[in-house]
Amino acid sequence: MSLILAVAKNRVLNLRRDRAAFVLAFVLPVAFFTIFAGIFAGAGRAATRQIALVVVDEDQSDASKRFVAGLKAEAGLSVGLKPGREDDPAGPLYTAAEAEHVVRKGDVSAALIIPKGFGEKAIAFGPGADRVALRLLADSADPIAPQVVNGLVQKVAMTSMPASLARTGMAEVDRWSGGLTPEQKTRMEAAIGEIDKPRGDGTAAPAPRGGGGLVAVETKDVVGEKKRNPTVTFYAAGLGVMFLLFSAAGAGGALIEEAESGTLDRILSTRASMTKLLLGKLLYLAGIGIAQLTLMFVWGAVLFGLELWNHIPGFLIMTVATALAASAFGLMLASVCRSRMQLVALSNLSILLMSALGGSLFPRFLMSERLQKIGLITLNAWALDGFQKIFWRDEPVWAIWPQVTVLVGLGVAFFLVARRLAERWEAA
Amino acid sequence: MPVSPLPLEIRDVSKSFADRRALDGVSLDLRPSEILGLLGPNGAGKTTLVRSVAGRVIPEKGTVRVLGFDATDDRARAVRGWVPQEIALYALLSPRENLWTFGRYQGLTGAALDRSIDESLAWVGLADRADDKTDKLSGGMKRRLNIAAGTVHGPKVLLLDEPTVGVDPQSRERIYAMIGELKRRGVSLLYTTHYMEEAERLCDRIAIIDHGRIIASGTKDELVRQTVGARQAVTIDAAAEIPAALAGKLAALGAQRDGLQVRVSVQDPAEAIRNLLELFHAERIPVRDLTLKTPTLEQVFLQLTGRELRE
Closest to B107 (Cβ–Cβ): which among A261, A263, A271? Predict the structure, then answer.
């Protein structure tokens, strides 16, 4: 027993001296818990997600205007009516085509088109009833947004259009009860008129209990309607980029091993300079990265129907840019660290953090707007956005120039930092 | 007629790390096809000096020139080889792949590189293990490959930093043979070692460094003459008590007595031993043991630095 305790004590002594292992054991889990709790739990109400929704009111009736006002009052929605500034009274409103375009581009989660005649026949009881259906344009990459919008549309229909609801109810009673007398109809109209009067605070009446399915909503996938498997693109790119970073950091660690074994000293006494050495390593890491991403996407194409073959140019450009940035990042990490253990701790922490914030583990469009903005500091976010543009939104190759520019820029910046840090290994 | 530059010219080189002075005005020459041994206790400045010749340390003062080129110049890199003390090789690569790597880093390509690799493998006796993984080789084989990696490009000047550390006697002999062959090929070698007998056996000249300064240099005989002198030590162990009369005569010859043992420093050992033995014979004192010792490099080192080499 005393020997077992001695072995345990020996390990405790080792752990106290090994800072990297200590960080891995205690600091890393707490750091990750904090980060993931922040992302998945929203880190407080202020950070919870609002769904960006463009609304096109083609009806322009009193009922449709009240309905739009009700949607704007919903805390869960961020409603946009104009392509320009919302507070510009002279600014033009979105057309249905423009609304579809912004959904396709991924600028908003969904668009709601209120067609002409909606105010007249907005509400009906039961399926197949005569009513004008709203058109919800959605991006099936985000399966949650249309469901949430649909639910809120039903709620707002009840709260913002009580008169329509009552009139429809009266018509149903008239139809099925054998007919109301003219006097009954007059009294009911008077009562409905009272409901319809605007409330003092300008908001819709509180939602009655029950409901659902009052307003017909036709949902149309404007982005992924022809896609066979919407989540494959996300996972191929998301996991691909994350593992690219891990393998680049691991392979970059060869630099530390060379320094520890004396091989780096020997190399630097030859005609190979530090810049040539780092460029050679970058070339290797980028080559491995390109092979890894290619394998991932080919696998996705063969097994899950990912549409690789008709997106080859965009795929190649994004793959090269992403592999370059990830490789330079791996080299930079290796140049920062003094030992393999330090590299393991730092790369785990930074890559998992970047992957979480950048959307490799959890789609960014499901995060709060604040976290989505923070995510843009990671190369994962830019890489994923580029791959999504190519594979999901079928955008032309030139449309990925912002992502490619940022990734190449990050790659150059990481390499320059790595080169600067590597000066400590040069002749002194 | 222009004078061709020396393989290695070190002039007044100084280097400090933080508040420690590692080299303090070192000057040293390495001549063509010469093996110059660099001896010094730990921390004396040997490694800093070798690293400054390898272009890995930039002196604050002074110059290091390899065949006339500054040590950091690409032309110096091309004619210089460095065999570090560590086994600085890629353990997962084969000997052939390691030699390919360092040959390429030194600018060799194509058929010249292939030929050089084959010659190096044969030279270090690893032709039959050329494609095994390096970490599967024995310690002696790795040491030999370590030397080959520093010589694959055919350097004119070679820095060897303790190349026989941790090597069994058989492998050490093989390494000595390789070094002898390099010398015959015309390579000039700067050789650091902890083994005194190695320095005595291999080196044409020896420089002793301590506290960052070269405190003596020359051939072994020159060093001995400059320090402990050329005199040899005769020690006689008497088998019986030395009487006062004999003690007086021995003292007159400059002998020191310690109980039954008598020690005397002599210029001409043959004559001195005959005289001493006659004195013992005349007094009928039997001699149990007699030794004659020539001064060693170890004594030179001890006298100059006040420390054993391995301290």
Answer: A271
User: Any CB–CB contact under 8 A between B92 and chain A?
Assistant: no
pTM of structure? 0.75
Measured between CB atoms, which of B58, B78, B84 is closest to A271? B78
CB contact under 8 Å between B102 and A266, yes or no, is: yes
**B149 and A CB contact within 8 Å:** yes
The domain defined by B232-294 folds into Alpha-Beta Plaits (3.30.70)
Task: Say how far apart CA A243 and CA B219 lie, in whole Å.
Answer: 61
Cβ–Cβ under 8 Å, residues A105 and A224: no
Residue pointed to by tokens 């205007």: A65
With CB atoms and an 8 Å threshold, state whether A266 touches B84.
yes
Domain boundaries, chain A: 19-42+228-425, 50-221
3-state secondary structure of B290: strand
- Short-list B141, B17, B119, B56, CA closest to A263: B56
Per-residue confidence in pLDDT tens, chain A, 428 aa: 788 888 888 888 887 877 777 777 787 778 777 777 766 665 444 445 678 888 888 888 887 888 888 888 888 888 888 887 877 887 888 888 888 888 888 888 888 888 887 777 666 665 555 677 888 888 877 777 888 888 888 888 777 766 666 666 667 677 666 677 777 777 777 666 665 555 444 444 443 333 346 777 888 887 766 666 667 777 888 888 899 899 888 888 888 999 988 999 999 999 888 999 999 999 999 999 999 999 989 998 888 888 888 899 999 999 999 999 999 999 999 999 888 888 888 888 889 889 988 988 888 877 777 788 888 999 999 999 999 888 888 888 999 999 999 999 999 999 999 999 999 888 77
Among the listed residues B273, B247, B245, the one whose alpha carbon sits nearest the alpha carbon of residue B259? B247
Q: How far is A266 from chain B (nearest CA, A)?
A: 7
CATH superfamily of this structure's domain B8-226: P-loop containing nucleotide triphosphate hydrolases (3.40.50.300)
ipTM here? 0.82
Domains B8-226 and B232-294 equal at CATH topology level:
no
Query: Which residues of chain B lie closer than 8 angstroms to A272, CB-CB?
Result: 105
- CA A78 to each of CA A52, A68, B148: distance values in angstroms, whole numbers, following the listed order: 5, 12, 71
| Contact present, A74 and A156 (Cβ < 8 Å) | yes
Cα of A262 to nearest chain B Cα, Å: 5
Please provide residue B106's backbone torsions phi and psi, each rounded to the nearest 5 degrees.
-95, 5
Which ranges in chain B belong to alpha helices (H)?
46-53, 74-79, 95-105, 110-123, 139-151, 169-184, 196-202, 220-226, 244-252, 269-282, 297-305
Contacting residues of A for B102, CB less than 8 Å apart: 266-267, 270
| CA pair distance A349, A27, nearest whole angstrom | 10
Shortest CA distance from B155: residue in chain A: A270
Helix (H, G, I), strand (E, B) or coil at B91: coil
Q: Residue A405 is encoded by which pair of tokens?
A: 């520019």
CATH of A50-221, one of 1.25.40, 3.40.225, 3.40.1710, 3.30.1490: 3.40.1710
